[in-house]
Amino acid sequence: MHYLSRYRKLALPGVGVMIAIAGGQLAGPYILKQIIDVAVPKGDTSLLLAYGAAFLVIVSVTGALSYLGMILLARLGLSIVTHIKQDIFLHLLKLPVSYFDKHPVGELMSRTETDTERVRDMFSTLGANLIVNVLTMIGIFLVTFALMPALALIMVGISLGLLIILILFFSKIFPMYEKARSLYAKITAKVTEFIQGIEVLKAYGRTGWAEAELDDTAKQRMSLEVRISLIEYAMMSLLNALIGPMFIVVLLLLYAPKALTGAMTLGTILLFVEYGARLLRPIAEIAESLRSLQQARTSLSRIRTIMATPEEPNRGSGKAPSFERELRFDHVWFAYEDEDWVLRDISFVIPKGSFTAVVGASGSGKSTIISIICGFAFPQRGKVLIDDIPLDEIDIVAWRRHIGLVLQESFMFPVSVLE
């Protein structure tokens, strides 16, 4: 809602257009009723042409408004998703480096790109369809209550029953949606990581292993998506095959005799047959949209998880030491997970102006020491002192300006080092 309120200049006209579209869809069948009940019995050609022209205008205007509404809501969706992506990226820049040690690049790319695109669909095409369908249903109920209250109660009963069945159905298969989404995120993460590490894969002849890993996950997702599709289409086909004919049969049994005796016009029966069809179609489309809504809800939950991650604290007084004497590690202990210690009771002193080399086997903690010096991580025990001032009491951002760091892996940016 925070993002939606920012773009209300697009949202409000879009909703207004959707209301007009729903009105146009309700007006069309009523004009056909008037043609059958009024113009044809009278044999009035001019009246018939007038109704025909009105019907043509309504259909044309409704079509034009549908196009306009889609444009407005598409722009709304694009504007919102662009804003969300910007906020996610800016938030990621403020997270501690330790966060990226636990979350692969592919996973974060999936959150920033794929999940936000699902949210865009929710505010654009999915949102437009839901608004029109809900308004159409409400309009049909109101018109039917005004003309034939008994039939309206039947419509409400059928619609509520159908909605309850669909809600229960989708609540049961929602875990399958979650698993499919998780598998998709894994595929995205693996593709990103394998491409980033292509040189290592080729050097060690492990491209076949990477292909098998990706193929296994892709087959799991395909199998699950096929199961979901079969269940969905079986359910929707069954409902469409039963509910529509059931409504028409009930309508004809109750009101066809009245048409034969003249108590009800043929146009009225045809009006409600058409309204019945138009009522069931929105319900089916809403049910179809529930899957996208569930996916969008999952995506929103994943985005909120990232945005709720605490930013890197800027510890200290806001001042950086001048570094006049030494950097000292005083009985430092550090672990990335629980008490799986990478550094155990490490102590050393680096005087200003000296050259120091840290030598050790892979995994012995060399990179961890550099991370601690740069303030990317902080020890669980012991202290790191800059001229006798604890590192966690100074401005980390200011301290990092005194450090030149050359990483083991080079990252190329499309700008100069100075920039």
* Number of helical regions: 12
Query: Could you say which structural class the secondary elements and strand pairing correspond to?
Result: alpha+beta
Beta percentage is 5-15%
CATH topology of the largest domain: ABC transporter transmembrane region fold
Unreliable residue stretches: none
Largest beta sheet: what is the strand line-up? 2-1-3-4
The mean pLDDT is 80
Oligomer state equals single chain
Describe the structure.
This protein has 419 residues and is of the alpha+beta class. It folds into two domains: 2-307, ABC transporter transmembrane region fold; 326-400, P-loop containing nucleotide triphosphate hydrolases (Rossmann fold). The chain contains twelve helices and four strands. The longest helix has 55 residues, at 207-261. The protein is elongated and about 105 Å long. The protein starts with a helix and ends in a 19-residue tail after the last helix. 20% of the residues are buried.
Topology:
Blueprint: H1 2-6, H2 8-42, H3 45-93, H4 97-102, H5 105-123, H6 125-147, H7 149-196, H8 198-203, H9 207-261, H10 266-307, E1 326-335, E2 341-351, H11 366-373, E3 381-386, E4 389-390, H12 396-400
Antiparallel strand pairs: 1-2, 1-3, 3-4
